[in-house]
Amino acid sequence: MNPHLHAVRAGLGRGWIEFLNSLRSPQDLGYYLFFGSGVLIYLLFNRNTTVEGTELLYPAVALPGILGALIAFGAYIGPMYALAVEREDGTLLRAKATPHGMTGYVSGQVLFQSASALPMLAILIIPGLFLFDGFAAQGLGSWLAVLGLIVLGLLAVLPIGIVVGSLIKSPNKIGTWGMLPMIIMFGISGIFFPLQAYGVGYRSSRNFCPCTGLG
Questions:
Q1: Is residue 212 part of a domain?
Q2: Strand partners of residue 57
Q3: Considering its fold, how many domains does the chain have in total?
Q4: Which one of 44, 64, 73, 135 is separated from 93 by 20 to 30 angstroms, measured CA to CA?
């Protein structure tokens, strides 16, 4: 077998095992349930509120943005924190000492960090379909668009998290050097505020689908 493919296969296996272990972790499960429940309760209290200037209900607009923020945050902070911690405990050094070890390590991180977004997405999306009007995407095409946007979000942010994590030498420096780029990136991304707020010419929010991000 090609050594690069073997390294990728081994890395993907390691990443999948780490994901399964996280699903068995009471701490991780508690975080998913606590945060997800908090978001759903907040949106439930505002389920009849309309967004100013539109006829859209607040949950139908806010929840897609929250999902986008969670994907971006997890794909950025996750690999960055993992690289910083595993540099200190020697995991990265052992990977570098193994033939094609870094190829396997990065492959495992990509799978683990991508899969780690699934539990929170499920906790928010599945109840949201039944609790909030206007949130459900219409038809197979809309759901494929949602899936495509999730994949694109991971592909866009994961490399940034890995690169920044490779530059940070200690987990203690994540708060200083890691969070600043994320804050800037989130601020100009349109996740929390519409691009119109920055004076950017964009299509009217009346023609904007909050579930797919497409007009």
A1: no
A2: 50
A3: 1
A4: 73
Radius of gyration of the chain measured on its C-alpha atoms: 19
Output 194 or 140, whichever has higher pLDDT: 140
The strand pairing partners of 50, in sequence order, are 57
Task: Fill in the DSSP letter of residue 198.
Answer: G
Question: Tell me, what amino acid is at 14?
Answer: R
Domain of residue 32 covers: 3-207
Higher pLDDT, 5 or 49: 5
Q: Are 71 and 153 in contact (CB under 8 A)?
A: yes
- As a whole number, mean pLDDT of residues 59-66 equals 80
Distances (CA, A) of 44 to 15, 129, 201: 35, 12, 32
Q: What pTM did the predictor assign? A: 0.76
Paired tokens of 131: 């609790």
CB neighbour list of residue 199: distance below 8 Å, 6 or more residues apart: none
- Any idea what DSSP says for residue 128? H
Rounded to the nearest angstrom, the gap between the alpha carbon of residue 61 and the centroid of all alpha carbons in its chain is 18
Of 130, 131, 119, 132, nearest to 34 by C-alpha is 119
* 190: pLDDT strictly greater than 70: no
205: CB partners within 8 A, 6+ apart: 51, 53, 54, 56, 194, 196
98 in a domain, yes or no? Answer: yes
181, part of any domain: yes
Q: What are phi and psi of 57, to 5 degrees?
A: -75, 150
Please tell me the distance from the alpha carbon of residue 81 to that of residue 170, in angstroms, as a whole number: 9
